[in-house]
Design brief:
The protein is mainly alpha-helical. It has helices at 17-30, 42-45, 52-69, 86-95, 100-104, 107-114, 121-135, 149-166, 211-219, 237-250, 254-258, 264-290, 293-322, and strands at residues 4-9, 35-40, 77-80, 141-143, 174-176. Helix 9 (211-219) packs antiparallel against helix 12 and helix 10 crosses helix 12 (264-290). Bound molecules: adenosine-5'-tetraphosphate (AQP).
Length: 325
């Protein structure tokens, strides 16, 4: 049977090279051999305060980026999470399945709540909503970056617990985390993940950065003083990050690349060039999609209808298993 794939991206800011290499690039490759469902997860975005106008615009922009990267609406389903109410409905059922202790152990909650003055209950229960997103589509495989590993394990635990308590209801998914590009690090602080909502303008490469800006950011990337090009994330995080990025952008491995460089300068220059080559055509297609918001919205309405057809059947199954309705 064709494997079913689901993944989502939050419209919380301008998407980074990390989201491209860790997620989007892989979604596009997967879609020809799988039944893929992709989502702009705007309900996740509101776990932290958002400006409503900006959120609406970023939601459309994120959808445009999916398409610009090559997601084909003729073969994949692309929609906005809040357009399909079953996500919130199933999330509640799963909040009643997951425990307070399990949610308390989520490292992403600890990191994100650390940075906020106001910590919403939604930020805490976020993994239950993420589990609902995945389980609604009978997902076999979830392509994500390494930072989502713990949430995926929780999704599996919740699905297994629900099935055990109430009878077979959900497909238990597996995380699909690539060997290369699963954790792109900040160029200025290579011990921290490159992130769209962390304030590090020089350390974060945005998917829509101009080529000259990308080249400058790589030129200034933090390395170290020993001058040796070697892949060793523990002791050489900056150089290893450059090798990982170059490998992910040229479909090879960091180990295969390390012997080809004797100095940091050429490594930085080649990495920038490879990233620009990957992103330039995406940026051109992005401009085409954003020039026609009516077509984009129509496509998302169609995607939501397709998603609803599958999600409503799964939700009905879960409600029946629980004795609801
Ligand atoms: N630096 C990264 N390296 C590899 N993969 C990454 N992903 C994100 N950053 C990196 C993967 O991209 C997908 C979408 O992530 P998201 O935008 O929904 O949320 P996130 O993981 O929380 O990404 P950010 O950029 O860090 O956003 P904020 O700052 O809003 O939290 C996921 O599969 C993720 O693993």
């Amino acid at each position: 049977m064709t494997p079913r794939v689901f993944s989502g991206i939050q419209p919380t800011g301008e998407l980074t090279l990390g989201t491209y290499l860790g997620a989007l690039q892989r979604f596009v490759r997967d879609q020809t051999t799988t039944r893929s469902v992709f989502c702009v997860v705007d309900l996740h975005a509101i776990t932290v305060p958002q400006d409503p106008g900006q959120l609406a615009q970023r939601t459309l922009d994120t959808a445009a980026l999916y398409l610009a990267c090559g997601i084909d609406p003729a073969t994949s389903t692309l929609f906005v999470q809040s357009h399909v109410p079953e996500h919130s409905q199933l999330a509640w059922l799963l909040e009643c399945t997951v425990s307070f202790g399990e949610l308390s152990r989520m490292t992403q909650f600890k990191e994100k709540s650390d940075r906020q003055q106001f910590v919403s209950a939604g930020l805490f229960t976020y993994p239950a909503l993420m589990a609902a997103d995945i389980l609604l589509y009978d997902t076999d495989r979830v392509p994500v970056g390494d930072d989502q590993r713990q949430h995926l394990e929780l999704t599996r635990d919740v699905a297994e617990r629900f099935n055990h308590r109430h009878g077979d209801t959900f497909v238990v998914p597996t995380a699909d985390i690539s060997a290369v590009g699963a954790r792109v690090m900040d160029l200025q602080d290579p011990t921290r993940k490159m992130s769209k909502s962390v304030d590090s303008p020089q350390g974060t490469v945005l998917m829509l950065d101009e080529p000259a800006v990308i080249v400058r950011k790589f030129k200034r990337a933090v390395t170290d003083n020993d001058g040796e090009v070697r892949f060793d994330p523990a002791t050489k995080p900056g150089v290893s990050n450059l090798l990982s990025i170059l490998a992910a952008a040229t479909d090879t491995t960091p180990e295969a690349l390390e012997g080809q460089y004797q100095q940091y300068g050429p490594l930085k220059a080649d990495t920038a060039e490879a990233v620009v080559a990957r992103l330039a055509p995406i940026q051109a297609r992005y401009r085409e999609w954003t020039a026609d918001p009516t077509a984009l919205r129509a496509l998302l309405v169609q995607g939501a209808e397709q998603a609803h057809a599958v999600a409503s059947a799964t939700l009905a199954r879960a409600q029946q298993s629980l004795g609801l309705g």
